[in-house]
Amino acid sequence: MNLILLGAPGAGKGTQATKISDRYGLVHISTGDIFRANIKNGTKIGMLAKSYIDKGELVPDEVTCDIVKDRLTWDDCKKGYLLDGFPRNLFQAAELDKFAKIDAVVNINIDFKLLMDRLCGRRVCKDCGESYHVSTLNGATTCSRCGGELYQRRDDNPETVKSRLEVYNEQTAPLINYYTMQGNILNFTGSEAPAEVLFAQVAESLDKLAR
Ligand code: ADP
Ligand code: ZN
Fold first, then answer.
1. pLDDT digit string (tens) for 93-109?
2. By three-state DSSP, how is residue 122 classified?
């Protein structure tokens, strides 16, 4: 099963992505994670990506599409994959159609009012990638799942979040219509409820598809 996970920054894509790929044995491919790994390792792609990510803008399509196209040729993708954060605009979606066969798009809709606070208060485990919110950490600085150190992403600040949300509205949201036309979109509503609540709904739909 090959899936796309669609949703605004802060909609909870990362958390759902982990759960979905665990349940269905899919490779989790996050373009954001790939860029952050490149930045950490000081690669050329990382240096280029950083200048865009810090401003909350999209990394150029050509670079991004090449990375995904290459990643999908790896052997592990034969068991199925979940694309998280790609495609992010209509150009990328059209490119993807040329080199991939997508079975379903999981779209998480969420009230925009929740996102600024969610993203600016987000802390991420540097080892396992689990996300937390400062309001529920009670001062903890390590991951309750793996003990890893928590950090704040550089782009989780009010100014960058504002432009990320604008980019989502202008460039990514049109994908909802694009995949609705293709007839393979599954829509869900994210909320302040625990991630398990949303995941139960997602799994119910995907179980039918996986059979
Ligand atoms: P979020 O969904 O919370 O914004 P991501 O980790 O998916 O976080 O993305 C972080 C940043 O990485 C984006 O703001 C963008 O700059 C860059 N990025 C990720 N995926 C793409 C993509 N498909 N195309 C262009 N830029 C991307
Ligand atoms: Zn962790």
1. 999 999 999 999 999 99
2. strand
